[in-house]
Amino acid sequence: MKGLVVNSKPFAFTERVDEVSIMLKHARDGVQKLIDLVVLAGVVLLLAIFALGTFVLSDPAEMIELLFWTTPSAYLFCFWSAIFLILFFIYRRLEARREHAVLPTLEPDAAAALAPTDLSHGHNIRQFMDDEAVKSVEQGFETAHKFKHGSVDALHLFIGSLTTREASIVFARLGLSFDTMRDAVVRRLASLPAAGGTTLGDNAQKILAQAMKSAIVHRRRHITPVELMIAAYDADEFLQELLYSKKIERQDFENVLQWIRINDEQRRRIKEFSRAASLKPKGPVNRAYTSVATPFLDSVSDDLTRAAAWGQLPMLVGRAQELTSVFRAIEGGNQSVVLVGLPGVGKDALISGIAEAMVEERVPEILQDKRLVKISLPHIIAGSSGTQAEAKLLQALREIAISGNIVTVITDIDQMIGQGLDLSAILSQELDRRYTFVIATTTPEGYASKVERSVLGQKLIKIDVQEPKQNEAIHILEAKIGSIEYKHNVVFTYEAVSRVVSLTDRYMHDRQLPEKAIEVAQEVALEVHKKKGDGARVVGEDVAAIISEKTRVPVTEVASEEKEKLLHLEERMHGRVVGQDEAVKAIAAALRRARADLRSQDRPIANFLFLGPTGVGKTELAKTVSEVYFGSEGAMLRFDMSEYQEQGSINRLIGAAGQGGLITEAVRKAPFSLLLLDELEKAHPDILNLFLQVMDDGRLTDGAGRTIDFTNVILIATSNAGAQYLQQAVRQNIPMEQIKENLIENELKGIYRPEFLNRFDGIIVFKPLGMEEVVQIAYLMISKVTERLKAKGITFRASDEAVYELAQKGFDPKFGARPLRRVIQEEVDNAVATVLLKGEVGRRDTLVLEAGGKIHVEKAAEL
Predict the structure, then answer these.
(1) What whole-number distance in Å separates Cα of residue 354 and Cα of residue 229?
(2) DSSP line for 731-775
(3) Do 49 and 75 form a contact (C-beta atoms < 8 A)?
(4) Half-sphere exposure of 561 (CA within 13 A, CB side)
(5) 3-class SS at 99?
(6) Distance separating alpha carbons of residues 666 and 644, to the nearest angstrom
(7) Distance CA 753, CA 733 (A)
(8) How many C-alpha atoms does 432 have within 13 Å on its Cβ side?
(9) Which positions ≥6 away from 455 have C-beta within 8 Å?
(10) Would you state the pLDDT for residue 615?
């Protein structure tokens, strides 16, 4: 049999599961419920008889006399019999609860290393399973037996778990209905081979062992249907494909299950936290009664351990690395620490997590039986002179010293320094006395400008608190969603939660996760409640609409009207621009790639350099793009570069002395726009260097230190450089490709550096490449297309002939791989974008590129 070895003890599911055992269990459960019902009915009847005899037939005042309780009577017998039955009922409940043992706990690394293995014997995993999980196994067996399958497998256990409360929550959060998958599941069950005598085979035992591992890894007390669902999902390729076809990937499924775990843990905290904290002092005196009252400290501080003991602090999700770093620093040498991170990354939440761990005694010994007290610097500083503030701080610290059981928290510790005030020296001197240590917070700017260079900086170990990754931010938001749902009477789907995190991370760069995601979730909930009423479901498009409104970037699904506009951009632009087919097609193709989400996410939508004499339509085409795609010409940010010919003009563009600049502020306020740089050749060379970063990385740092996002900008630069040559060449009927080559290689050499020209889409200069190298680059570029489509659930492949053909078309020793990029865009990306916009391809389908640039769709097999 299959099982796990945990702490040197073997565990396996040894419970008998067959028709007879299930029937007997149901009968036994029925008898137990009947007994409970009889007991409760007896209690009610006996208490009713006691009440009748005491309050109706006798004088109730006699109850306060001792003689009433010592004189035997039938009514008193009924009362004590009822008390006995109540105690008997409580005993039965406690015994039933003892059937579910608590899972062992392991360190994360040890838990992750667990793996199902062959065992000859083992303790029964059943003891760790809650009633719903046991029910799932029984239902899985009955499903297998119904279809006459020889053994219970992953699909049966998954179907069995669907009857539970947790499964209904999972499907509701995913926005799925099992009815949409029923036909595929039934077909799959019918296709499995039939055999006599259904048993719980090795596959089922392995899945149950894997469920136990999952529960231990996530520090669960019991094995629940959540663990069975993910273990069954991981063991069955059909289930993975089925959910994948519904746009549910493995990480999505795991995140929803983690959402259930978080909610369960929050409910457990509500029920059990006060009991866990009952041994923790809730006032200034510790268990040893060695400390004294701290009246002044209490007036200028908050006791975080007391708040945690009463369940008033939010649950900390994630941040295991930061917690470990804090405990290691403190335990390693009684060292004080400073948490350094941008506003909104969760420094205060981390401190709340430390307070909770202290209450539950999940901390190093040096922190056990301690109070975590946060001093309020505004209470110390406000309305006080420097001398008065020093006196207040010293008084608070003296009480901390006398108490002897306090760990001090100081948030925004950089406020202690500046504006004629410096309390850091006093705090530093007191820390040297080692009667307490400090957990402080500050921002990177505050640390660098004030704390690091102060005497206090030498006493504090710096611990960086970074913005959480998207997946961790999703878990943090899941922990907050319950209160948001309750406040606004709405229900979030997982898609909405996921998109809140991904879209705020992608488009709101002036704020940090998780704070910005939580705030947007609150806005979305409020808006959905206003529009849809009580109990409304919040879906991904609701989130996208709010993000679009806040950032002015279109992130909602492409509507049918917009599809038509995208597919006929050239026609609409030619309504205002005569000729210039190449420029029109290039811009239209870039817009389609961007809206179909096939472009690189760390560069602007497109970077174009328009060359030509005055009056040929360069600026007019830019205006047309702004009007047709961005809604109006007012969406165009136009800068005449002839005004920025001096080196000092850089400060005007990006700002200086802590202030934003003209171009950075314009893009920050309108991140989805067309940026037009007129007469680029007249700008100072140092200004051109700024745009190297913009075109390459899609961002620029302004004078205030803010990172401005340019990834939703179309950058168009116009230039009259080489205009005289261009006019002469056209008159001589020189082909346009040759004219362009001469412009880049000769006419523009003295005006633009090669590395600058290379940043524009379609223009680049590398050392000469051979055909073999170009073919390799073509494969790499095709692989990038494959990766972008993989994120959409679509497979893409190209034949060797097609790749070789693309390499041939893009082969130019003078331009390196840059022409190949254009070929890939024109013959691969454009065609794929069109197929996507027309809706001809779905998840699990395959796009195939053949020679001649032909793309056809291979539909996936029906599930």
Answers:
(1) 32
(2) HTT--HHHHHHHIIIIITTTTS-HHHHTTSTT----S---HHHHH
(3) yes
(4) 1
(5) coil
(6) 16
(7) 28
(8) 10
(9) 424, 425, 428
(10) 60
| pLDDT reported for residue 812 | 67
Helix (H) or strand (E) holding 786: helix 771-790
Report CA torsion sign: 299, 305, 311, 315.
Answer: positive
- Output 71-77 pairs: Cβ under 8 A, ≥24 positions apart: 74/49, 75/49, 75/50, 76/50
E strands, 774-860, are 795-798, 846-850, 854-858
Q: Answer yes or no: are the C-beta atoms of 548 and 499 closer than 8 Å.
A: no
- Give the DSSP letter of residue 671: S
What is the reported pLDDT for 757? 81
Tell me the C-alpha distance between 182 and 251, whole Å.
Answer: 23
Burial label, 676 (beta-carbon count in 10 A; 0-12, 13-18, 19+)? buried
Write out residues in the chain with pLDDT < 50, as ranges.
Answer: 276, 285-290, 763-768, 814, 816
- Are 241 and 248 within 8 A, CB to CB? no
Identify residue 207 by its one-letter amino acid code. I
Measured CA to CA, the distance from residue 223 to residue 100 in angstroms comes to 9
Q: Are strands 673-678 and 636-640 parallel, antiparallel or unpaired?
A: parallel
Q: What are the residues facing 12 on neighbouring strands?
A: 3, 124
Whole-angstrom distance, CA of residue 426 vs CA of residue 643:
53
- Measuring CA to CA, which residue among 345, 343, 320, 324 is closest to residue 467? 345
Query: d(Cα 483, Cα 270) in Å, to the nearest integer?
Result: 14
Q: Which 3 state secondary structure label does DSSP give 67?
A: helix
Rounded CA-CA distance 632/561 in Å is: 17
Instruction: Supply the pLDDT for residue 810.
Output: 83
Buried b / exposed e over 275-314, threshold 16 CB at 10 Å, is eebeebbeebebeeeebeebeebeebbebbbbbbbebebb
Q: What is the DSSP letter of 200?
A: -
